[in-house]
Amino acid sequence: MEFQPVGFGGSERPRVVLPAPDPGLSGRIGAASTLDELARAVAAHPDSMDAWAALGQWYERSEVTVVNAVAAYACFRVGYHRGLDALRRNGWNGSQSVRWEDAPNRGFLRCVSGLARMADRLGELPEAERCARFLIDLDPDWNQSTGMAEPVG
Q: What is the b/e burial string over 136-152, where b = at least 16 CB atoms within 10 angstroms of the residue's CB?
């Protein structure tokens, strides 16, 4: 199934860019090599979508079990809701785009994408489809071949 963005008229619609994540936290997440290190980053920065996305991706890339899929789903779900809160605090009203090319938005978009993948893996197909559509509504350049893959760059 191919998804198309919601039409909002002629020119590109306004976009919202989240505040840049703490560079120290980004470095800590990037350097984390264990579940414990990622969990500590999340515990220290529970509002960080980047931290939740990284923790969700750790579970997603771990041994394929229902436990890991549910844990990944939960991490992505928390990051998704933290992201919606952050977007609203930064003026998002649901009609502006949230683009991958704006690097501060990537943690949130990774959470939405991860939530779509884990919902699909767990058989929650309406949720997977809703998230896939939401990604394209947020960023019309999102990879439309699967509706879920993260753009390059």
A: bbbbbebbbeebbeeee
